Amino acid sequence: MNVLELDRITKRFGRVTVADELTLSVRQGDAVGVVGPNGAGKTSLFGMISGDLRPDAGEVRFDGHRVTLLDPSVRCRLGIGRTYQVPRPFLGLSVFENTLVAAQQGARTRGRASYALAARVLGETGLADLAGRPAAQLGLLQRKRLELARALATRPKLLLLDEVAGGLTDPEVTELVALITAAREREGLAVLWIEHVVRALTATVDRLICLAGGRIIGDGGPLEVLASPAVKEVFLGTADALTEAEDRDA
Amino acid sequence: MRYIAGFIVILLAGVPYMLGPAVEQPLVTLFSLVAMASWWNLLAGFTGLTSFGQQAYLGVGAYGLYVLALAGIDPFVAIPLAAVLAGVVALPVSFPVLRLSGGHFAVATWVLAEIFRLSVTLSPAIGGNTGVSLPGISGYLPLLRQAVVYWWALAIAAGSVLAVWLLARGRYGLAARAVGDDPVTAASSGIRVARIRRWAYCLAAAGTGAVGALLFTHTLYVQPGSIFGVQYSVLMMFMVLIGGLGTIEGPVAGALIFFALQQTLAAHGPWYLVLLGAVAVAVTLFAPRGLWGHLGRPLFPIAHLQER
């Protein structure tokens, strides 16, 4: 069964098209990677799924509901959890409170149940020891973990990960990937994952989508997509141009 | 410590018997400041809504009390009704102003208070520009009236601090603090941002309306030019920032500091205002979390701690 369906969504900012009649579906429990050059429309795509952005045309369906025009808070309560590329924790709240508020509002738990859910998620994301710390004091890796903890505490059916591995060292990426894989296996949730660190993706996802100019130019097994000529052109085309430019400069 | 606070309130309740009107009068001012600041803090400190127009609800509270008293209701009984009226008036108003945030919200609330002031000025039925005196109060002997005003002031101040504390430490308060920190993340964490802000706005209006009604029973006279004055919002901001934004003790501490400065220095005219400004600048520079924010452990904690 499809948990998410995008039906010909279109979004333009002035003359820039970030989604061009884009159609996509994600099945329950799927892990789908999203790659593409800068400006391909990856984060905008997430915005239209989570509700931070409204498409100009087309329809977004989630878990049997038409959510195209719904507020982000309603979509979160329906089961869409998201992280932001640049972590945006609630800086005035403690790590525990960041997770607790998501458990209370997103997962709609109360009292002891909400405390237990928040504590459990902090344990799973390796933040248990930092629970009492103000979120403002966290470093980048910890903020990325907290971003993930906050999203997981809303008990999502679909998790949108926006470059959770960006800016981290290799061992940190490995740790984070393990954590996400564990969460997937435990909850059976679907994951849509934007990442520039392709290594992190290929290790985790069973399907890869390549976006360029607001269109899907590759969709299938990760290795197959990365090997396709259209995808190669988008990525390696620019790489070739770079090499040529460097050659000229030399 | 909380029990000490309760004890102090009980002690203060005895002031009319022990010390009489000379002490009552200034304390009514202090208590109204505490209440005003606490409600302003619910908006700005917890929910991230910096209002410059809370004087609108001081006015609605005062003029609401006038209308209720004219209708024959005892003014002291009508104080809570005037508060409810202010909260109800705030509801439709909240829809346009809460579409804005940050500086736009601040200016919009101010403009709104000016509209309220002009509407009263242009309504001869409620006294127009000259103002009105409180009807239905002549049945009280002055000594008793002053004591009742004092008790109401104490009840409103203590009730406001307690109400804001209970709100801030609960489920609602946690969501409100998240909204104040980052409304975008808040929404994508499942928080109904608009609803949280609307509640804060209407409750703060009701609390401020109670203070407006109280001030009317204290001064017995109200004029649109003074009750709708923007200096009230400046005052609320001063007290909360000095004391500690987003803490329960901050507005109380700020009110005490302002009150102390006012009582000792008011005689020196303009220098008093210069000093207020200097204090505000010094605190902002050297103690940005406010004086209470730097004093350590809160007496009225709002944090949610993990159960071990």
Helix/strand layout:
The complex is a heterodimer of chains A (250) and B (308).
Chain A: E1 2-13, E2 16-27, E3 31-35, H1 42-50, E4 57-62, E5 65-66, H2 72-78, E6 80-82, H3 95-105, H4 111-124, H5 140-153, E7 158-162, H6 170-187, E8 190-194, H7 198-202, E9 207-212, E10 215-220, H8 222-227, H9 229-249
Parallel strand pairs in A: 3-8, 3-9, 6-7, 7-8
Antiparallel strand pairs in A: 1-2, 1-4, 4-5, 9-10
Helix pairs in contact in A: 3-4, 3-5, 4-5
Chain B: H1 2-13, H2 15-18, H3 21-46, H4 55-70, H5 75-97, H6 102-121, E1 132-133, H7 142-169, H8 171-181, H9 183-188, H10 193-219, E2 221-222, H11 224-227, H12 231-243, H13 249-265, H14 270-286, H15 290-293
Antiparallel strand pairs in B: 1-2
What does this structure look like?
The complex is a heterodimer of chains A (about 250) and B (about 300). In chain A, about 40% of the residues lie in helices and about 25% in strands. Chain A is of the alpha/beta class and about 250 residues long. Chain A folds into 2 domains: about 1-80 and about 155-250, Rossmann fold (3-Layer(aba) Sandwich), CATH 3.40.50.300; about 90-155, no CATH class. In chain A, strands 6-7-8-3-9-10 form a 6-stranded mixed β-sheet, sandwiched between helices. A 4-stranded antiparallel β-sheet of chain A has the order 2-1-4-5, covered by helices on one side. In chain A, a hairpin with a 2-residue loop joins β4 (about 55-60) and β5 (about 65). In chain A, α3 (about 95-105) packs across α4, α3 runs parallel beside α5 (about 140-155) and α4 (about 110-125) packs across α5. Chain B has about 300 residues and is mostly helical. Chain B has one domain (about 1-230). In chain B, about 75% of the residues lie in helices and about 0% in strands. Chain B has a two-stranded antiparallel sheet with strand order 1-2. In chain B, α3 packs across α12 (about 230-245) and α5 runs antiparallel to α10 (about 195-220). The longest helix of chain B is centred in the middle third of the chain and has 28 residues, at about 140-170. Chain B is globular. The interface between A and B is medium-sized, with 38 and 25 residues.
